[in-house]
């Protein structure tokens, strides 16, 4: 389970609320499968699931069609050319042995 707290503007908390709000307590980021790694930068959250899938929420993603209709309010799966091995800030390391 992933939880977030702090400034919730633009969907940064992943709680579905894009208003200018603050949470001093932990808020559950709904809609994520089992997660093994998380990262955050600015108003954006990222998470790697146990299968190497990348999930993101918040305003800094530039989700384009992947976030259509949800505008970063809730986590969305971001397509990758292969499974992700690790995550740090804005960088994702992909498995180079994965089929292309």
Features:
single chain, 100 residues, mainly beta, 4-stranded antiparallel beta sheet, two-stranded antiparallel ribbon
Description:
With 100 residues, the protein is an all-beta fold. It contains no helices and eight strands. The protein has strands at residues 3-7, 22-28, 35-41, 44-49, 54-58, 76-78, 84-88, 91-94. Strands 3-4-5-6 form a four-stranded antiparallel sheet, with no helix packed on it. β4 and β5 (54-58) form a beta hairpin. The radius of gyration is 13 Å and the shape is elongated.
> What helical percentage do the residues reach?
under 10%
The whole-angstrom Rg is 13 Å
- Helix run count: 0
Q: Provide the β-strand percentage band.
A: 35-45%
| Shape label | elongated
Termini separation comes to 31 Å
Instruction: Kindly name the structural category.
Output: mainly beta
Task: Give the spatial strand order of the biggest sheet.
Answer: 3-4-5-6
Q: What is the chain-wise order of helices and strands?
A: EEEEEEEE
Q: Major sheet: size, sense and barrel closure?
A: 4 strands, antiparallel
Task: Set out the fold topology.
Layout: E1 3-7, E2 22-28, E3 35-41, E4 44-49, E5 54-58, E6 76-78, E7 84-88, E8 91-94
